[in-house]
Amino acid sequence: MDVLIKIKDREGVVHELQAPTDMAMNIMELCKAYELPVEGTCGGMAMCASCQCYVLNDVPLPEMGDDEEAMLSEAFYVKPNSRLGCQIPITESLEGLELELAPEN
Length: 105
What we know:
Number of domains: 1
Number of helices: 2
Structural class: alpha+beta
Distance between the termini: 34 Å
Protein name: Ferredoxin, 2Fe-2S
CATH architecture: Roll
Strand order of the largest sheet: 2-1-5-3-4
Largest sheet: 5 strands, mixed
Keywords: 2Fe-2S, Iron, Iron-sulfur, Metal-binding
CATH class: Alpha Beta
CATH superfamily: Beta-grasp domain
Helix content: 10-25%
GO molecular function: 2 iron, 2 sulfur cluster binding; electron transfer activity; metal ion binding
């Protein structure tokens, strides 16, 4: 099953992406698959914040882990709604999620 996720890029363009729930992907990998400008330098280990995004609506997300919290405490452009895309697995509960890519560091 696919879920619809909207991601606003750094130019303000909103991309409506079909995200498969059966491939064990995360938001960072989804952005890369659709060629959105997300580096993911650390490969999804919550060690670089290059996939930081802002959550724009109220969709249930997994709790923030210690590694993600520590990385965001050191990152630039952090807001209260910041998350690392690599730490958000794509599941059916993300249907309708709206995100905005954070500025590049």
